[in-house]
Amino acid sequence: MLRIAFSRLGSFVLTLFIVSLLIFATMDLLPGNAAAILLGTAARPDTIAALEQQLGLDQPAYIRYLTWIAGAFTGDLGSSASYGVPVAGLIAERLQVTLPLALIALVIAVAIGVGLGVMAAARPRQAPDRAASVFAQVGIAVPDFWFGILLILLFSVTLHWFSAGGFPGWSDPVAAVKALLLPAIALALPQAAVLTRVTRSAVLDVADEDFIRTAKAKGLTERRVLWRHAVRNALVPIVTIIGLQFSFLIAGAVLVENVFNLPGIGRLAYQSLAQRDLVVIRSVAMFFAGLVILVNFAVDLAYLWLDPRLRAAR
Question: Residues spanned by CATH 1.10.3720.10 within the chain?
Answer without folding.
Answer: 87-313
